[in-house]
Amino acid sequence: AGLASIGRPDLFLVIFLLTLMHWLAIIGCIAFSLAAVDLSVSLAATVAVLVLGVIGLTLPAAPGHVGTVQLAFTVALGQFGVAHSDAFAAAVIYNFFVVVTGFVFGLPSLRMAGMEMRRIIVAMDRPE
User: Fold this and answer.
1) Helix, strand, coil tally for the chain in percent (to 5)
2) What is residue 88's predicted lDDT score, i.e. its pLDDT?
């Protein structure tokens, strides 16, 4: 079902553009997190964090991907000469704001959409 968009160029274009916007937003969040700890790195370093972060998201991880995000930041930025402590600090800021923002906007949005956490949790526990 997920590949059905390939057969519809108009839908594929919309999905592609939304994906591109999402990646640009993540790059912006990474850049702001780095700026928060007074780090100035190249766009390549920021993209490297994004790539390792995406790879890390495919692995089983703790809630909020705590640990995985920090590893992506420290490994990627280490290749660009950034100290592990600085990269880790930026990763904590990134992780905090991305997760908190998701909860702050996500939970009320679910409520406005008519969903309740109790129903969502019960639905997740049911085998298909």
Assistant:
1) 80, 0, 20
2) 96
C-beta separation of 77 from 70 below 8 A:
no
Measuring CA to CA, how many Å separate 6 from each of 2, 19, 21, 100, 104? 9, 14, 19, 34, 34
| First-to-last C-alpha distance (Å) of the chain | 17
Comparing CA positions, the residue from 62, 112, 70, 103 lying closest to residue 89 is 70
**Mean pLDDT, the chain, as a whole number?**
86
Is the per-residue pLDDT at 117 higher than 70?
Answer: no
Mean pLDDT of 55-72: 84
Would you list the DSSP string of 28-75?
HHHHHHHHHTT----HHHHHHHHHHHHHHHTS---GGGTTHHHHHHHH
Predicted confidence band of residue 23 (pLDDT cuts 50, 70, 90): very high
Q: Residue 25 half-sphere exposure, CB side, CA atoms within 13 Å?
A: 8
